[in-house]
## 1
Amino acid sequence: MDVDIWAWVGGTQRELHEAGNTGLAMALGDVPAQALEGRFTQLDVVAPAIAQHAETLEKPWLEFFARYWHLLGRVGDRAIGAAALEDAVALADFAQRDDVSDCPAAPGAVEVLAMTQANTDGPGYAETRLAALGAVLDGVGPESLAFSGLATQYVAALIDAGQAAEAVAYAEAAVERLRGAGREASWELGAASARALLAAGRADDALAALDASTGFKPDDPVAKGRRETLLKSQVLATLGRIPEAVEALPDLDVIGDHAREWVEWARTVGMLTEGIANTWQLGRILRQWISYFESVGGHRARFELALTAGHLAVARQGLWQARLLADYAEAAIASLRATEGLAERVAELRAAADAAKELAPPGPRDELVAYFDAADGSTADPERWVGWLWPLSGTDLEATRRHTTTLGFLGYAPVGADLYWKTIVEDGDPAAAGDDDISYLTGLLIEAGQDERVETLAARLPEIRSHLALARLHRARERWEQTAAEAEQAVAHGSGLEARRLWSGAVQQLGDNSKAAEILKPLLDSGEGEEEDVWRLIVLSTAVEDWATVRAAGAKLGMPIEPGEGPIEEEWHLVRVILPAPDGSQREVLAVRTGPATARLAIPQPRGMEYNAGDVVVIDPRPLEPIPENEQERESFVIPFAGVTMLRPGGYTSWFFDGAAPSEDEWAEFNEVLAERGWPMWVYSDENYRVTHPATGEQLPGVFGWIAIPPTVRPAELDAVLDDVTEQWSHPLAWLDLAREVGIEAERHERISKEYGL
């Protein structure tokens, strides 16, 4: 993104503020951070909303800005490939529109399109990327901040095209062009140069280039640390400096959430088998990564990961897994555009698996199930057990259960589903199978995405089991009406707890809390339910204010609720309630718990929120964090709970105040006056907030926050109280919106805001 675009962003934010679009203005400035910091849940909500709003406002640059950062958040750290290609092409087309092409950020559309194509199939799209990037680079000079990112992608495309020497030369020339323009290369361009040198067989030079670029400013400062150490580990491993490479390699918990690094990390680990623990846990994680790339269209990545994981499996004698991974790699070839030499690499993996020696089982074949059951669950190697049980699977039911269960655990649910299907359905009578077998087979089929088989299975089951199997399927696919219908039928025909839970949960999803609670009520008397069912009944009954049921369920749990009728409005203890914010993030609001599943919010919220101080909300009584075991820590710990729904709005209205911080005595009086009236106040500024002295220009400590007043208090009363309590302060406090609302001295507050730079 060019520096001019940031000046434009600031100007656009001011325009939006002045037009009353405060929420949009605030969200706009946070979108790049959401993309770079990995706040993707928030980004996926906010960016499309901004783009849609920008289209309505006829602001194409704003729309491009939101769409660009959203796409970068998808194809950058998340490494989404084919699943984002259509959007990337659409953004590139949008950037060529007459009313967008002059935007300083417009070249970024070609950059993210190239990234998306690289994620899909780097070598397969290499020539396409080079052509598009080259055309843009012809019109973008090194004085533009867009140049470094485009050049980085051009180097990556040259490497994927097998032109390592050309990539080295281009990277070095780009760095020199930037230096000639008085600018420094980005760290990403320096890293691309190191990768080019490594691809050219110049590992020593690659290490020197990487060390030389370490001080360069990164385009993605959040990712620089892990990406740099990972690349350094790869270079050191190539040089045979194994202990240093192991030391440099980022831990799994560092790169585990960053798909962009997975292929390179796995490839590096494959070179470090002497220094890295090559375990079944590693194999399970790599299988999860392969599944991820299958889901997002990272075709080249899943091919490379399958081969790397396969060779690691051979090294630890997980030969059944190596053969399956060879099949997965071979299947991925059909989705790739450049396939030269790939079939041969798959054949090499198969040959390695065939040449390796199978591990001997721990006992006689007819005793393996007993050995399996006796194994220590915390230390046993499930990967080895899959291999040992495989000869029995499909012929011995007990062995098949354990074998397919373990296959599913290791990430091979479709394989386990095929084996279990053959045993239960093809070679047996599912109507005669046990409940556990049907339940587990249904789960395997659902996990494997074999929905048609679930329907076929249901058709061969007795009515109760048939409805239950279909309810499980519909629940997994979030088809709530169908879930409710099938689960209701299962309950009607005598099914037990699971069917009632499915029915109630689906009805709740459909918005009928009252009916969802009625479905669970019989569990109070039958004793069939568990504690979690009673808590769920409490939440549902609270949401519809069925206080008699809440009291009955609370008594079932032994809760000390005061007897009586009507709402439960007690004063229990402080809690933290986690609630959604309009920008897709979450807010933590201090509240007082007033009952088993209710809390009254105690903190004023900014305008634009759907809740405020005084509101009573329903909470999920399951703590979101464990309560500390240490007694001293427990005394200061405030339990966080998830907010479920609004129960009873308090009708409070928040008003903003801002200005220079008063003295301690002045502030104490301010707090006391508000507390006496029961008007909640909360400071949102921190110790770093500063305002400007209008006479000297000195930076003064500042304070801003919100005050909430109940519906029985007129805004004019708050204005009068604030005016009175701050009258003698050394520096005035401003409450501009409130002054405008009541029509008193708005000009004075405007002047204060301007003079103090509020």
## 2
Amino acid sequence: MKHGQPDETTAALLELARAHGVDTSIRGWDGVERTVQAETLRGVLTALGVPAGSPEELASSLAEKQSEPWRRLLPPTLVAREGSELDVAVHVGTGQSVTVSVLAEDGSRHPVPQRGDWSEPRNIDGRSVSRASYVVPADLPLGWHTLLAESAGETARSTLVVTPERLQTTQALAGQQSWGLMAQLYSVRSSRSWGIGDFADLADLAAISGAQYGAGFVLVNPLHASEPAPPVEPSPYLPSSRRFFHPLYIRVEDIPEYAYLPAASRTVVENLAATLRPANLDTERLDRDSSYTAKLTALELIHQVRRSPARGHQFEVFRREQGQGLEDFALWCALTERFPADSPEWLQEPTGPRSPFAALHRDELADRVTFHCWLQWVCDHQLETAQRAATDAGMGIGVVHDLAVGVQRHGSDAWTLHDVLAQGMTVGAPPDMFNQIGQNWSQPPWHPGRLADSGYAAYRDMLRSVLRHAGGVRVDHILGLFRLWWIPEGAGPGDGTYVHYDHEALIGILALEAQRAGAIVIGEDLGVFEGWVREYLAERCIFGTSILWFERDNGVPFAPERYRQQCLTSVNTHDLPPTAGYLAGDHVALRESLGLLGRPVDEERAADAAEQEAVLALVRERGLLPESGTPVGIQETVEALYAFTALTPSSLLGVALVDAVGERRTQNQPGTMNEYPNWRIPLAGPDGVSVLIDDLPGNARFASLIRAMKLGDRVGADAGA
């Protein structure tokens, strides 16, 4: 550095990073601007495939970045908005003619005219190249089209996606208010479960809350695929694949072929179920591994039953529709059963489903591949049944799925989508007031350039699977579609930086696929974000998320009128204790016991009590609680807080099932792994007794909460009798 200015090499590194969408300085949660370490910038650029070591590499990479678009007839992917023209830069050899057109999804052809004159030519790799702007017409329909450019015998093709200006499904909710349950499905059992909540339990939960209590939706945790066999990762937010589903949630007895099991096999399955059903009443810990082990044994027996011609045809249609993505996922499952995660075979380059390692075993493992394809078909069928049960019960939206931020580093997507993920990086979050060392989520990020080069196919296919039988999707950390915190492997979570994505493409494709599925989109937009991001999401009619305790302006809680209309508003989130526990300060006690507090516990308790009191004072002002000093029970306070959310203009109100039944224990404590039994807490009531789905129709506490919100005309009159 000279006179406070970076030297030439540092300046070149900063320029190169910014050119590739990598932030070179970060404003922390404390308001202090910090320069990103040069080592971090070089690591991120290397993961992007950009040499950035020596001064010569920096100069060469900068020149390459400037020349790269001139080497292509067309950009790899273009994203337009419905009803708007789109300018496209076309590059051809100077003096050559070019014809540009759109081949629409329906097979129709549309000319693309030139706008303006050709530019001054540039010398690119010894060839004179000129640029002109062409304009994609504004009257193209929504969908996935192909842009064609033909010049001198060469034809270039680009993916052209026309996306909604505004998501109509979400926009249609303006002026309405609907409430729904928020539940961790695995923790919600019935008398028929195998120790873990399943797809049939989801159907019953939707039917009860919709038909009896007037709910419009039920939002569940991510149901993404985990490992193909125990032991399985307990966190639903650290899946193996986000495109496919977890067979752990299958209701074995609901598979049609179950009825045709031979007597001996049926006895085996019935004994497995009988062994596991007592676990439905266990309120200490959920045991996914025992449940999954038993289910896989039963599922393999059922898979051996010959399917009827109609069922056989349906299965084959499903495999064709899901295409190579399903076959590759199933192959990974079959390989994982044979080769442990630390086997050297996984490290052979090239890796992935097109590798020699994969080709060597694809035919040999064909039967297991078929089995894992079949499991996904069963999941698909039971998810369809759950969504139909929801809408049949009067739900206007139905099941809302949750989309996790990313996947395991050694899971299915990391292997099958190797080419569009950045290697040597994980994603997380920078330090903030709650996690002052930052967070590392141990998930590889999308590679923004390669994702665009691929036409966003993997992203699109993932969305289509999640939305296939859904009334909506909640996108966890939707801010990650704008920028993600990249951490070089081996570095601390605070030693990362933000990498920016083409949010116009990612949000536009999300809106397109949701609109085609007739689904709403809820973005979890909590945390550190740039101010314009929420405005952008609102313009596209993507809902946000508001949690009662966090909605403040300079420390002062928002009045209900200040909440957003395009929003899912709730008292609670799965990263906090249930409201009964939060009011008691359980989160402070738990963080103290785990060594997660950044200040003395007395200060933390005092600050937490003051923040709670500020909210409760506002609730009293609205006449929802008696004056301060009057004894109030926990249940009455919880109901008043939910009644407060019903005063907001928010179109969607979330009711945590744990609050509806009086559960108090924390489901997940951020910043921990094995220090706390995250994602393994069964649903129970305030008396510590397991609450089953069978109990919900007559649950007086549940009915009382919905009455307090004045939202349900159909709340069971006999529930409190």
## 3
Amino acid sequence: MPDFLVLLFSDVVALTIGIFFGKMIFQKSFDKKEAEAQTRAAEIIRNAEISAENIKKDRILEAKEKYLKLKSEFEEDANKKRNILQSNEQKLKQREQNISQLLEQNKRRENELETLKNTLTQQTEVATKRREEAEKMLSQQVTQLEKIANLTAEEAREQLVDALRAEAESKAASHIKSVMEESRLTATKEAKKIVIETIQRTAAEHAIENCVSVFNIENDDIKGKIIGREGRNIRALEAATGVEIIVDDTPEAIVISGFDPVRREIARLSLHRLVQDGRIHPARIEEVVAKTRKNIEDEIVEIGERTVIDLGIHGLHPELVKMIGRMRFRSSYGQNLLQHSREVAKLCATMAAELGLNAKLAKRAGLLHDIGKVWHEESEMPHALLGMELAKKYKEHPEVCNAIGAHHDEIEKTSIISPIIQVCDAISGSRPGARREMMESYIKRLRDLENLATAFDGVEKCYAIQAGREIRVIVDAENVTDEKASLLSFDISQKIEKEMQYPGQIKITVIREMRSVAYAR
């Protein structure tokens, strides 16, 4: 046998033996691992069974605890409901007892009412019989009286009513006269005292406002610069300011004419700046006028703020403060509006303090009473009503609003401050020299006064005297008695108050003159 075959055979045998032994070793290792795995699985199963048993016990305990808790809650709720039911049963029993008592009381009252009803029926029957007897007796008496007096009952009644009416009118006239005289002796004295003290404590200057302003210049050469070539400068100035510039032969003076004081002031200040600067031409004029107008607006606000600070008035809306400043450049019958409003405010505060009223509220209403005159928009409303609406718009006190709207009797007075504002406005406007009135309107007012009084029955003549502060009425002595004369003066005063506008007060004097004339022949 060759050697390589021997070697090959030996290698095959060795390999087979190795495989056999390797298989045996692997089988033993596998069996060992399988046994370990089974042991571990059994241990896991045992642990799981123990854990499951513990969980089961925990769940049973939790269920028991929850059951006990629910049971206690149920029993507690049941006890509460049981208590409520018992309480309701007691209340029902009590109500049943009350109802039974009420029924018994109602039964007793029904019996009492039945008794009263029977009594009233009897009394009614007796009263009816007595009334019938009285009517019968009255009818018999009336018939007898008609036979005696030869008058029917209706005629006698009319005569009695006429006599009583005449007597009542006579007594009423004399009573009115005595009451008026007594009130004059007491109220007039005290009122005059308060008004005089108020006026004395509030001294104010009066300056009549004109519709022109005079601008003084150093020499007449400046007039030519102001006029400009072919008058272009003066036309530009008039167009920018809205006033009329009058350059005439008046030495060293130029007249600025316009109804609006603000425009006149803007024109005057603009001329002053242009003359100082020396450059006078249309473009420069427009620039200076615009700056001056802005400065005037700032000055208006400053005047308003200074006014309210001087008067001690706080909390006014900025727009109202601005309108107060604008009053400085307005006038009424020649009287400066701001000066007039300041004076009225001081008069109102003093008079309200004398009467024990709210002086601060009265002062506020007095300052704002003519605020409707400076509203920048055109309006057909009277200035008093417009001022009231503005005061309401800017959240003023209702008493202040009513005082503003009622100071010319456009609306009804609902506050005690309102007549004080009206009186103080008349005091300020009726002072000598305070206002200037056009001759035509003055004459018309006097004529209207005379015509109003002449329209009454029994008036023969009427004369307005003392610049319209007094009217003297001459009546027919045959048709107007003394009592009717007193009533006539009162009626004329009431009609003047309702139909006319006037400053201060008007005295009505009724004159009844009886003349007896005879001739010796």
## 4
Amino acid sequence: MSVMSSPVEFLELLAREAAAVEFEGPLVAARAAGVSADRLAELEQAKTVALRVRALLGRRRRRETELSGLYDTVSDLAGLRDVDDVLRAIVHRARTLLSADVAYMTLNDADRGDTYMRVTDGSVSARFQRLRLPMGAGLGGLVAQSGAPYVTANYPEDDRFHHTGEIDAGVGEEGLVAILGVPLRLGSTSIGVLYAANRSARPFVREEVALLVSLAAHAAVAIDTARLLAETRAALEELSAANTTIRAHSTSVERAAAAHDRMTALVLRGGGVEDVAAAVTEVLGGALLALDAEGRLLARVGEIDEPERVDIVEAVAASRTEGRSVRRGHLWYAAVVAGAENLGALVLRPDDELVDADQRILERASFVTALLLLFRRTVAEAEGRVRGELLDDLIARPLRDTDALRSRARRLGVDLDAPHVLVAVGDDAIAATGSARLRVLSWATTYASGRGGLAAARDGRVVLMLPGRDAGGSARAVARDLSRITGRPVTAGASGPSSGPAALAATFVEADRCLTALGALGRSGQGASTAELGFVGLLLGAVGEGGDADVARFLTATVGPVVDYDARRGTALVRTLEAYFGVGGSLARAAEQLHVHVNTVTQRLERVGQLLGADWQKPERALEVQLALRLHRLRTPEG
């Protein structure tokens, strides 16, 4: 029997992603060949298993596509702030991801006890767009009431649901048949329902239900975030109006209102802690310190000494307990907190005594400072995570959609088609503790984003993608600056420049090999590029632990006597050998390059022969000597 009538053919069909009908081919061929019934049964079983595998692979591919779409959805939602924009984006993406004819959303009305149509995408019926569903009525009302997903392949004929005339009329006018509805939940509370529907019978499979549930979960958070932002803006407007009224009562209240307005403006225009500190001192006078949770200085305005750490801890604890600012000697302390989390403190040395309204200004400043610190941390973490995930996708995964990668990069202000260099930072930058790793990665993220690049952690390394063409200079700058941050020598290997998403993975591999080669050359704590190491970098790129010891042994065995002789006598035998090989073995040209007489070169080479042996100029031995000289030069670049 030929291979074409054996189970092996089913593997070949799987490998080339053949259509399902082609899996009947081996059975047809076997029957035509008159094989035994047992053999036919074996082939039938193999075909069944192969079709199962084919179906599984298909589901995996679909799931990958769905997850990618879900990721893009979350990224898009994160950038929206207006509630209506968020709702429209959610419904449109639901329709796109499930390839549905119509997608829509209803939100629960607690006052009326029903759920009403809020946003639609693909709808053509005005009656359908105005529907309100009593709790428990229709598919949507049942989902809103129970908080559980429901799906039907044919809603008009499905008697599981409580049909009403108004709902059936709206659904009929829209022409909907298959409907899937999932709850929008915040914790244990259902706030609405997200739907996907078709105008023909269609069974929504389990994976599609799970996808819409995932989208609904992200959508609920995005809706709540947009709502909170809107409420915050409304609250700020209400506070501003209230303070306008208070301003008429007394001078101190006017100062408090002015300070509040100023700090509100700082928040709205993206000001920092330094701006808040300056605003407080301009209103209250005196000098102010802003400290983080560890007592490190965030901002200083005016002449004021930092209190003792123990005094700060005690005063901040008292401020948190009392829920207001406290006085210790001539200083006022206001704890900067978010819930139960201590974020730092404001320390004020006023010029004059503070009245209650002035204390409120200081306390308001601590609240604004907490908001700014939380917002800055959240933005930094989110942006760092997104930028890190993009770089990880570029260097670690097979590129399937370069246009999507370019689009993600453009949203981050990165042009992947511009020249970039990849810098790999060695393990010597990362201490054993997790906090040290996070500090290094945080520094790398800030360093790269400040230059329009990316940073990520990868296989124990920290990788930076930086715009430009000077790979060696970038590696040295990273090694130098990160050494200052960590307080220990840091090694950095670089490669590039390269342009385009497809080239970055190979550039990272080269940078990683350059990093390994630097360790093998004993150049830990330095930065260099693959171009600067040349062919030696290629040879040593795969060297792992113990590589430096191997290189040292090779150098000792090959040119060690010459190097030692120079060190003891102050001679120039190594330089003479480099010049001699560099001019192709010409004594005259070597002498000219060294600015010595030809006889001097001859005498030095005779000394080399005495140290290395008479066969040092034979081709095989000469190649080893030249390689050793190059390694020696790379290990001691300052020479």
